[in-house]
Design a protein that fits this description.
single chain, 6-stranded mixed sheet
Length: 234
């Protein structure tokens, strides 16, 4: 079981060249969850369907099916992903967190990327829903892709142990993704787990940044206590 007491093994659901359809991506993700029984598992933004604007109804229906399958499969893991869902006749890009067969947190993307036409297809969520939440004493926050650019949202996630950033970040701005993720970890004195994947136009990056600004392989929660005692921000 993942908790505040120990180190946390982080696994990223990487793009699989052999998983091109919705069903193939779901099968791959389910097997990934089964094979990583005690990990924080992060999939990239709308991993299961991509931004399939021509088939939004189909994508949203599949998301409901996928969520049920992930609920059946997820035990001790904490699984974080985003999916296209339909709520009150509007499509949203919703982050979903599953643990112990339950949805522990949902959060609609509030800052839509106009350069990618997201505002034409999705209803924006509310920024005041971007808040820390707890699982087994672990305080987690989520920023979905473009939201990473908004410093006022960083402040809303102060006190988190981990901020997860599922993204599909454009490759021409790859440096921005790295710098902003690292800066957020330093500023909020927390770990940031940032994951972007997609086709050749997207940044393909899976990184964990420590509160000290270092790129690390996994999360040692003792580092948060050390840095917050060493550099007091009050």
């Amino acid at each position: 079981m993942i908790s505040k007491r120990g180190n946390i093994d982080v696994k990223f659901v990487e793009s699989n060249a052999n998983a091109n359809t919705y069903d193939e991506r779901l099968d791959y993700m389910l097997q990934f969850v089964i094979n990583n029984p005690s990990s924080l598992i992060i999939a990239s933004e709308v991993y299961l369907s991509g931004f399939d604007y021509d088939n939004m109804e189909q994508a949203s229906h599949f998301s409901e099916f996928a969520i049920e399958k992930l609920l059946e499969t997820t035990k001790d893991q904490i699984v974080v992903f985003s999916a296209i869902r339909k709520i009150d006749n509007d499509f949203v890009n919703q982050a979903i967190v599953i643990n112990q067969h339950k949805i522990c947190h949902i959060q609609e993307k509030a800052k839509l990327f106009k350069l990618g036409n997201e505002d034409k297809y999705f209803k924006a969520g509310k920024t005041d829903c971007i808040v820390p939440f707890e699982i087994n004493g672990l305080k987690i926050g989520i920023l979905i892709c473009f939201e990473l650019r908004f410093k006022e949202l960083w402040k809303q996630l102060e006190g988190c142990d981990i901020v997860v950033v599922p993204a599909k970040w454009g490759k021409p701005r790859e440096l921005h993704f790295k710098v902003l993720s690292n800066a957020l970890a330093i500023m909020n004195q927390c770990f940031v787990a940032a994951h972007s994947s997609g086709d050749e136009t997207m940044t393909n990056m899976s990184s964990i940044y420590s509160p000290n600004g270092e790129k690390v392989d996994n999360i040692d929660l003792r580092e948060i206590t050390k840095i917050r005692r060493y550099i007091v921000m009050e």
